[in-house]
Give the backbone structure.
Amino acid sequence: MYSFLKRALDLTVATFAIVFFSPVLILFALLIKFDGTGGPIFVDISTRVGKGMKNFYMYKFRSMVPGAHIDFWEKHPELKELEKEWKKIGKLPIDQDPRITWVGRIIRKTDLDELPQLFNVFKGEMSIVGPRAPYPEELERYMDEYPEIKKDVERTFQVKPGLTGVWQVSGRNAITIPQRYKMEGDYADRRNVLEDIAVIIQTPIAMITRRGAVE
């Protein structure tokens, strides 16, 4: 019954949201296409970890210059200090990250870069509510740094990753990695549609307040 209700909720919300946000999706797709950097509309490196620890391609608007994750730092040795900071925490404040385009700054600060994931939900690869889908190398790094999270990670990926979730509405980057996977593992164990609805309701508030987001 849970799986049926969950999928019904996903399809209902995803269909409504795709229709409602279609002007925004089209507008930003065009802005990214003609932003002057010559890159694709969607990020070219977006393999993520999904249900059952299986990888999938997650749709996401490109917010960085082409090659941002490949050779950007090698091409800009003058930014060595920023590179060190990026390697240390895995993320830079939006306004300080030289890889982010002008369109990227808009969609990052409003979380609009996540909207294309509605198509992953429609395809059944993601849910509206679920754990955050990490990059495979990101998850591997977490497992190396925090070996105690292994069981929580296994619990977490019993379910599909989500467009939003308990981590996103509870403080995001203000939450430690072990706390996050404990939280997401507990969510996966509960499997409660009412909780999903509560998270959906809280999501706009989390987006507006940006609590725990790296700015």
